[in-house]
Write a structure and sequence with these properties.
The chain is mostly helical. It has a domain at 17-99: lambda repressor-like DNA-binding domains (434 Repressor (Amino-terminal Domain)), CATH 1.10.260.40. Helices cover 52% and strands 0% of the residues. α2 (34-41) crosses α3. It is globular, with a radius of gyration of 17 Å.
């Protein structure tokens, strides 16, 4: 069994330059300032700045949220998802395992319980 808590060393990846430009253009098409876009999209302004500057690759989860929130075209969405990583940020194996454990340990059936409108 793999120890998910063991530290791993990985090289930071940077996306193709056109990804950051595309994200900035999409944000401006929406008429949003960076701080406003960050709040709406659920990321920090500095993280959004780094994405737009081409310094960071989003996780797959964040890339999907950005694509939906910015109403990206299919080709823009494909470009963004191709640059996304599945082992960092929201998709890091330790975080993913923690979310799954929380869901499995929940005393409430999926879609119900405190804070939901389900059954």
């Amino acid at each position: 069994m793999t120890d998910l808590t063991a530290p791993t060393v990985r090289q930071r990846r940077t996306p193709p330059a056109e990804v950051g430009v595309m994200l900035a253009d999409a944000r401006l098409r929406c008429g949003w300032r960076r701080k406003e876009a960050a709040r709406i999209l659920g990321v920090s302004p500095s993280y959004l700045f780094n994405l737009e500057a081409g310094r960071r690759c989003p996780s797959v989860t964040v890339a999907r949220r950005l694509a939906d929130g910015l109403a990206l075209s299919e080709s823009e969405r494909a470009l963004l998802l191709a640059a996304a990583v599945d082992d960092a940020g929201a998709d890091h194996p330790v975080r993913r395992a923690g979310r799954e454990a929380v869901l499995l340990d929940s005393p409430f059936p999926a879609g119900s319980g405190p804070g939901t409108t389900g059954g």
